[in-house]
Amino acid sequence: MQRFVYADNAGTTALSKTALEAMMPYLTEFYGNPSSIYSLGRKSKTAIETARQKIAAAIGAKAEEIYFTGGGSEADNWAIRSVVEKMSKKGRHIISTAIEHHAVLHTLKALEKQGCEVTYLPVDSYGQISLDELKDAIRDDTILITIMMANNEIGTILPIAEVSKIAKERGILVHTDAVQAVGHIPVDVDELGVDMLSLAAHKFRGPKGIGALYVRKGLFLPAYLTGGGQEKGRRAGTENVAGIVGMAAALEEAIANMDENIKKVTAMRDRLIENLLKIQFSRLTGDPVNRLPGTASFVFECIEGESLVLSLDAKGICASSGSACSSASLDPSHVLLAIGLPHEIAHGSLRLTINEDNTDEDIDYILAEVPPIIARLREMSPLWEDKINGKL
Fold first, then answer.
1. Is 325 annotated in the active site?
2. Which residue segments constitute the domains of the chain, with CATH numbers given?
3. The one catalytic residue among 116, 302, 318, 325
4. How far is CA 204 from CA 95, 247, 288, in A?
5. What does the DSSP assignment read for 10-59?
6. pLDDT (tens digit, 9 = 90+) per residue, 57-66?
7. Is the pLDDT of residue 128 over 80?
8. Which end of the chain is more exposed for a tag (fewer CB within 10 A), N or C?
């Protein structure tokens, strides 16, 4: 029977048994509306507040600083748009990077159409920003710096604590999209010095459709959704009780096992990197040192990443590529272009993201299947012969 290997954990993760078991009572028995005053509703309310305390503890925050959202994208939107609304009298200039998740980039593009100015910091070949360039980009009317903690495509971990120090010297608010980091590497909001931080449950084996926004105490953001008094009146809508409980259970489990998981996953990741880089005309993307434990991302010349992903799928391996085409664009990933890869090379990308559910046998299987697939795809490429003959 063909082996199945899931290696797209940066896209989403499988729901942990711990999270599922924690959720089940709130999907079946304790289904009361948390805003109700009778006992069934109070049980739901208590579950929410207990979960809020657990999530806060996991990132070094206070319970009152955690606001539940429908996911990481909503948390990003809320943080950025609310700061613009709140700080519009001071200015409308925002600093970000060229490699942010689309939840941030598309929000910034929309705000530019509404009169905001955005400086997108360039990155080097590893996906790292220059702190000197950040300092130079700050203006008197800069109101927000929003920079991700870890990149979702190449795994580079960015220096958010240093960014915050620079921002504080100028009285500028800092938001970080930590969706890929929380649950996988240590995250402490006080050590990072951020004012806002976004996270999403389904990236650390929690349920989909639930996330949170950390907002530093004393920073009052305008309401994002109106219509009810939930989340201190800032995010209306009946709470996803089961999702909130599942998120807390998954994050608590991830934090408890983090040291062990990092050691295990890093070893598997390094084995993937070491062996796949033996393939001719391949290269690692992202920072070789400051990267997420589970992210191994590559480009292979003279192939199409989408064809590689589909070929791997036929072998039972779930992976992803930053070069997948859409009806709207034939361009490869904005992240790969931002780190300086030419279009023709960026198209041959492969992202393998593993976690503690993966095994050494999974890695063996990936390493056995990827090289012959790449060889077959290259044989079909009109560019391959020129490449090996030195004409490209």
1. yes
2. 17-255 (3.40.640.10), 258-387 (3.90.1150.10)
3. 325
4. 28, 8, 23
5. TT--PPPHHHHHHHHHHHHT----TT--SHHHHHHHHHHHHHHHHHHHHT
6. 999 999 999 9
7. yes
8. N
